[in-house]
Amino acid sequence: MLAEQGYAGTTTRAVAERAGTQLSLVHYHFGSRQHLLVAVLGRENERLLERQRTLFGAPVSLSEKWRAACAALDDDVESGYVRVLWELWAAGLAEPELGEQWRTATKGWRDLIEAVVAEWIAARGLDLPLSARAIATLVANVFQGIEVELLGGIDEKEAPHREALAAIGQLIERLEAA
Fold first, then answer.
1. What's the DSSP call for residue 94?
2. How far apart, in whole angstroms, are the C-alpha atoms of residue 17 and residue 177?
3. Which terminus of the chain is less hemmed in, N or C, by CB atoms within 10 Å?
């Protein structure tokens, strides 16, 4: 419902009706719309983080992992996860509990990226001017910016998102070859 109707259209009453259950059961199990939405974000985020942990744990090059992460972006947009994430971010600006869950969700992604980058830097003995944490922040911000623009209807002609992501992949390949 979040992906289809947004935060405003996702009431506990609407969820109960769609699920074919009583409103009182929704409130019994979740207490409020905010708790229900926190549970949804937590479950979906953990599922997708596990997918990325598996991807990044695979014995392939970082450039291959990058390309797979870029493909996953398209899957996440199509699945509605990105819309859910950003709907809850917007709601979290006014509702602290949702904001905290959103921050927790995005921290999980940054921590995962940081671990991958740190391992890659150490394995290659690189001396980079940025820490693994700073690189993870930049990567997360690139993906988040692209997500927001895609949700806002900005297409590839206006902002070549995939070209930019492909170029970063090529830079990674060059570092791997050096």
1. T
2. 56
3. C
First vs last C-alpha separation in the chain: 48
In one letter, which amino acid is 165?
L
- The residue count of the chain comes to 178
* Alpha-carbon span 41 to 32, nearest angstrom: 14
Rounded to an integer, what distance in angstroms lies between the CA atom of residue 151 and that of residue 149?
5
Residue 165 has a pLDDT of 95
User: Any idea which residue has 């869950």 for tokens?
Assistant: 101
> For residue 34, what pLDDT is reported?
82
Written as six digits, the tokens of 63 are 């450039």
Secondary structure (3-state) at 129: coil
From the centroid of its chain, how far is CA 81?
Answer: 8
pLDDT along the chain (178 residues), means of 10: 80 88 88 84 84 88 92 88 84 84 88 93 91 95 94 93 95 89
Q: Map tokens 């699945």 to a residue.
A: 79
CB 15 within 8 A of CB 27: no
**For helices 23-30 and 12-19, angle between their N-to-C axes, nearest 10 degrees:** 120
